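residues and backbone:
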Amino acid sequence: MNLLSPQLVFAQVDFNSADEIIHFLAEQLKKENKVKNTFEQAVKSREAVHPTGLPSGEIAVAIPHTDVQYVNAPAITFATLSHPISFHNMAVTEQILNVQIVVMLALKDPHSQVEMLQKLMALFQDQELLSKLMQISSDEDLYKAVSKHIQ
């Protein structure tokens, strides 16, 4: 199953808050009819209670998501940020992380979520690869690089 598509990968986007990037990525998923209209608010509500910032090394990531009932069809959005934005750490929720990569999950099957998270964790642990991804300025080139690792 191909969860990542070129229309849902964004290089060096410029946002100033977690809310802004969540709004942007949720809108892209909505345009592709992957999620319901209630998806964005559900992600923001979940993020407030269960933060998704991940301290993966020098390049921190966030993986905002919500429950399967807000999803029409499974998809993933992937964005690198032109400058870090603050997300709360998923493990130490009062800690703020300067996130540079945001991967929004819109998954239908809880079992596929585990498999996808395993692939993403392998990607996030490779700081050299994350560093290379951060250098890419074209959406298309970023899609090609990321799709090799999470298809």
The beta strands are 4-13, 53-54, 60-62, 75-88, 96-106. The chain has a mean pLDDT of 93. The CA atoms of residues 132 and 149 lie 13 Å apart. The first strand starts at residue 4 and ends at 13.
